[in-house]
Amino acid sequence: MSTEPGVARPASTILLLRQGMTDAVEVFMMVRHYQIEFASGALVFPGGSVDPGDQDIIGRPELYAGVVGDDAATLDFRIAAIRETFEESRILLARSRGSSELIDASRAGAIADAHRDALNEGKVRFADIIADNDLVLALDLLVPYAHWITPEGMKKRFDTWFFLAEAPPEQVGLHDGKESTDSIWLSPREALEGGASGRFTLPFPTTRNLIKLGKQPDVAAALHDARGSAVVTVMPVVTKDGDKRTLRIPLEAGYDGDVFEMTGAP
Length: 266
Description:
Blueprint (H helix, E strand, L loop, with lengths): L8 E11 L5 E8 L10 E2 L2 E3 L2 H7 L16 H15 L4 E3 L8 H16 L5 H7 L2 E3 L5 E7 L8 E9 L13 E7 L1 H10 L6 H10 L5 H9 L5 E2 L2 E5 L2 E5 L10 E3 L5
Parallel strand pairs: 1-8, 7-10
Antiparallel strand pairs: 1-2, 1-4, 2-3, 2-9, 5-6, 7-8, 11-12, 12-13
Helix pairs in contact: 1-2, 5-6
């Protein structure tokens, strides 16, 4: 999707959750390739820009399930979130038509082996992959978690919805080696400690969402809390005082404050 310079491009990302061996919530994250233009080398959640093909799927309701009422406002963002996650990690949030269960790791892997490279290269449409495999996208499993818009004045901007979803059983994910060079399941605490030590580069929205997620004792609690919480749009305002930069965000967004010193990646 092309936009004018400085105009926020619609984008989506998913915080895929699972219960860790130590009972802590774990989230799936990826290290972006250092040659990628945006957030190069950063540890991020899988996701990317909304494509025209995602919007085309809206007109084919037989390909998705569970989105009604206010959720329809984020329909193309939800579709993009599942597509981008599949492209980047091989994890596919979908059910066989007529089934209430998510497809298993074996079938998701077979679909990825057959189609992911072609999808990434623009040789096949995501809608056709879903239709040809008689699947239904599990949009109902995505819980809106956050909505961030890159500050005005920056050349490359995104209007990004963050969603929570419990990862399909046994679908562990695997980076593509192109846009992402590594992938890892880790607790929010481990990710934040890695950012503090310099092991990871964490963009500011990623850091704040990890801190927020880290307050939850388990996956069920995280999903329950997100379903009961209103999402407040965050578009940080950047201010400079010499070499010091601060970001101001809405206090009601739930990030434990409204003014933060800018110390990490944008």
